[in-house]
Fold each of these.
Amino acid sequence: MGIEVRTRGRSGARVTAQAQAAREAALLQQPAGEGQTAPPAIGHSSGHVAGKSNGRKPAIPEFDAEESLAELRTLAGSAGANVVGEILQRRDRPDPATLIGAGKLEEIAGAAASVNADLLLFDHDLTASQQRNIEKIVKRRVIDRTQLILDIFARHARTREGQLQVELAQLQYMLPRLAGRGVEMSQLGGGIGTRGPGETQLETDRRKIYRRVRHVEQQLENVRRIRAQQRQRRESAPVATVALVGYTNAGKSTLFNALTRAAVLASPRMFATLDPTIRAVVLPSKRKILMSDTVGFIRHLPHTLVSAFRATLEEVQRASLIVHVSDASSRLSAEQDAQVEIVLKELEAEKKPRLRVMNKVDLLDEEVAQSLMNDALREDSNTVYVSAAEGIGLDRLLARIDAMIEEDRVSRVHLRVPQKEGKALAMLEAKARIYSREYKDGAVELEVEAPESVVRRVREWVVG
């Protein structure tokens, strides 16, 4: 069930604070002069109509009602649902009691009965009273967008840490919705929207839930402490961390696998990656970095999830470089990028050094893709076009990452190493780029480009 609310004020269309922040965040990330021919902004199904470009700032395309409903359909598929019908309603204002009005709900109840639907999904956040009122009329279970996303997270969490984070988010979501639902929520759950705490026959008494929340938070704090210790050991060596972030299903895990030769699950389903994975990558300069794959972001990502997954997302906060992966084939990539900016701002990571990676260029027209890739060849460009699935542009991406990493900077030196120093010569062969090599009087003269950590180990043989 989707809803588009057309709300207009005296000065024309109005937008929510979140939509406005999304567009402003995206505009701040665009270099001057880019995007001047962007299409005008349009309405989206969370209930507002976008404003116009002011002539200097390009408009950011937004999800319209149909596209938002299509995203809900994809989310439902990721949760294991079989979608048997869709309804989109346009209203001047939301109904405070039922969101869409009792008359429309009677129509929906009839449609649901005709196809034997046992669950209604709303592409909108519902208050506890709205959810109860809707269920009384349609005589079926009702869940909103946030509850659906929480269910997908519960389905995909594999590690103990991921399961704890999902449970905490579900408990925080459940607390304000206890009134009037004690009997229902104390039963064992089954199906979409009931995974996680419901499967443990969780008591709905507030005191017991608060006690469980404190217990889960304590366990997550232990996870955070262990992760901090691991990070401290990593940071004691000059190894930079690069975090992949982006909208869900932008291809982060596919790119991660292509760069690290890892076997992280890469799936077209949304939120296939929940548990963080860190792997080493060797750059063209032969420096080693650590790359982390993170959970994908989405529009209206529940705040409880951002809070619960803070232990995981600390990898983004601590990263030396954030690689923002976007879907180049999506018309809404700018809007998706803007939503990523909102989450990065909430994590206080919006000022981190950033490299934009436009993925899935293999899905673009060949001439368009080649033109974009040629434009991005400028040395000062912070945008790289790649296809992780086809292996296109990966060398260029690694070279750009190499140029942007500040840790263990690379320098070019001339060395004269005695031939008997086999260990030092082997280390240079493995960890430095050798441009010339000449044997003279029992020594090897080398012109190399090497990280500072390597140069320090051969400092005594530096010439000039």
Amino acid sequence: MRIVGQKVFVANASRTNFVFLKLYTDAGVDGVGEATLEWKTQAIVAALGELERSLVGEDAFRTEFLIEKLHRDSYWRTGAVFRSALGAVEAALLDIKGKALDVPVYELLGGKQRDRVKCYANHWFFGARTPDDYHAKAKAAVEMGYRALKWDPFESSYLDMDRPQRRRTIAVVEAVRAAVGPDVELMLDVHGRLNVPTAIAMTKELQRFDLAWIEEPTPPESIDALADVRAKSPVPIAAGERYFEPERFRELIEKRAADILQPDVCHLGGMLETKKVAGLAHMRFLPVAPHNPTGPVMNAMTLHLSAAIPNFLVFETVSRDVAWRKELVRESLEFKDGEIVVPNAPGLGVELIEEACARYPYAPYDVPLFDGSINVAGVADGAPVLKEQHKLE
């Protein structure tokens, strides 16, 4: 079965742009992957275009050989753009193989470790500005069936936080905890915005809210800085979404810089590479909570990886998104008791509707972190992606 070509599809998601890849074979079996790299859409589209000439004519079943060949022949070998492109290619190849063999992709990753994956909600807070807003939206997210919520309450902070900012952040977290009660897990995402002393101080201030973790408290460049925070933090530290080399995860583990690892199956270069990182973490009995805040194909890629690793912790979901997200793909997802049932369809179990992408063309977006707009990025009242007892078809 030979690869005969590819197409790249871009769909505006009103906060970034989804980037989908489709590979076609001479046997009529095609495969899909996602290469969404937040706010780097045009770069990732160009990178995928560069890879096509190396793929056409190749045996679609030689997944690891082809990924290694693309890695070798790139010469530069690394970077978030290139490795995200690799992640999409690998997903499309595994999707093809799964369909051809009539097995889900998780079977190609060693088999299923669990029938359901525990979920947490992201994006549930879009549009909230005051503690009362967050209180109401947190209640609504729990009513959707979620038992864990993550968000960024750190406004436009960068490196330092003045006292009013700190008080406002604490007030928001207090409002959410009051809304959901003691049994719902809460995670805070800092998006790598604080210096070491400020991060340590905020972990101590926020300890009383019984948080599951604080994510990426310091900028990603220095793992030593993160280790300094983790050593003094009374709250577990999670990190990994902006590391795209396995070596960086080895360093995270060796320097005891994180309690929970968060590799992104796209940005790290694929499900197989992420499974290797999960294996490194499992040697130290560290849990893995994959990064997964983008589109529906990426959701499927992450779901299959989550089903196949022993040290999986919890699955990130986009709880609300643009209303047209469901127009872009055909998928079947069952959400029940705060968990997604692992599907058993061949391949990734998601089919791209090519013509739908053209209805939502590319639009440029800026990173919504440092102007305080993270809480209103995207659609403030976006459509629910999952809700209790809900099945997408």
